[in-house]
Amino acid sequence: MKFNKLTDYHLEGKAVMVRLDLNVPLKDGRILDESRIQAALPTLEYLLEKKARLAIMSHLGRPKGKADPALSLAPVGERLAELLGREVVLVRDYEEEPADQVFKQLGKNQIMLLENLRFHAAETANDPDFASHLIKGFDLYVNDAFGAAHRAHASVVAAPQLLPEAKRTPGFLMEKEIAALSLVRDQAKAPFVVVIGGAKVADKIGVILNLINSCNDLLIGGAMAYTFLRYLGVEVGASRVESDKMDLVEAIYRNAKARKVTIHLPCDHIAATAFEPNAAPLSVAGESLPSGLMGLDIGPKTLAAYQALIRSAATVFWNGPLGVFEWDAFAAGSLGIAQAMAESKAYTVVGGGESVAALHKAGAGARIDHISTGGGASLEFLEGVTLPGLKALELES
Ligand code: ADP
Ligand code: MG
């Protein structure tokens, strides 16, 4: 895929509309985690340094097409103002009047922030009239919202499609995500180790089937592992098993065999009698679990084996926690994987909301080569799906 480059533009005095993913978790108007705001800063700071005039738009949460004060971007705007040292003006009524009408009236040092795009049903409907209200009159459209690139929404697809090629470009975060994920998907150096955990087989099947084409070892953990073990006829006690997904597991084994990929499953567990935060952790040696026990984390022997594979890998991709890492007694597996990745000389990439949280809990974030900001978007990218938001930015020739 070929794209324009933000660094190729002359930006002084230009009106630039930037689509960001500022979808941060909020509680009572407080930002719980500002990583997505931080990830947007390089592009914003560059635009300001080059003296562009800045307008920003984003979604937040799922307000279902109508205004919801709890999902206002106001707290995000305040934080942006602090971080950028500029006044940020929140604009609400851009559905009635094109956004550039208000923009023209702002001072040249004021930044315009459009209120939550998803307050308007036209956004998720990919409505071209709404899209035109968003970007009409702007000199340049920059899309840095990798986390929204898998959505065919107005601000992501219809808007850039209304513009000539020269007026739309990815931002720096988007470029970085594409480069890192392309490396994993298309050019991973062997030994290539893929670690997949998390709750559901169905969520990960696409990624697994695509990465099986190029990886050497597939390390399975999390609740998913129990569906795999069950498929092999192993007793898994009260562990979470998706018995209707055995055909998917079968497809994975069939493809792995054809591609000579080794699938690794837990050979010991940390289990409990109930799915509860204060459940007592019980160590279970061996791959099977007695009845009444559910596996909530991989055991120490499994962790050591997985860590050894990660240490000797050249490329590692990780998505999905290996246990219920939110509860300390069942976090060792996920934190240990994070630690091994941080110590590995391999090119390391982590994607997925909970996996990234586990990585930070382990304090390992700084030593990972790329932490994807896009949960669903990064998985779809690695599945080999053409993301609509990227297609809308792509250059024809
Ligand atoms: P990501 O957001 O990184 O893609 P997922 O959404 O697939 O990850 O899954 C994360 C969830 O899976 C976590 O909240 C974790 O508690 C849960 N999980 C992991 N292992 C188990 C297990 N053995 N049993 C039940 N839930 C699990
Ligand atoms: Mg998740």
What does this structure look like?
It contains 15 helices and 17 strands. With 397 residues, the chain is of the alpha/beta class. It has a 6-stranded parallel β-sheet with strand order 5-6-4-1-7-8, with helices on both faces. The protein has a 6-stranded parallel β-sheet with strand order 11-10-9-15-16-17, with helices on both faces. The longest helix has 15 residues, at 35-49. The chain is elongated. Bound molecules: adenosine-5'-diphosphate and magnesium ion.
Lateral strand order in the biggest sheet: 5-6-4-1-7-8
Number of helices: 15
Instruction: Using the alpha-carbon principal axes, give the shape.
Output: elongated
Small-molecule binders here are: adenosine-5'-diphosphate, magnesium ion
Outline the low-pLDDT stretches: none
Question: What's the story with the biggest beta sheet?
Answer: 6 strands, parallel
Work out the number of β strands.
17
Short description:
This protein has helices spanning 35-49, 74-84, 99-105, 121-124, 128-135, 154-161, 172-186, 201-211, 224-231, 246-258, 300-311, 332-343, 353-361, 375-383, 388-391; strands at 15-19, 26-27, 30-31, 53-57, 88-91, 111-114, 140-143, 168-170, 192-196, 217-220, 262-264, 268-272, 282-285, 294-298, 315-319, 347-351, 370-371.
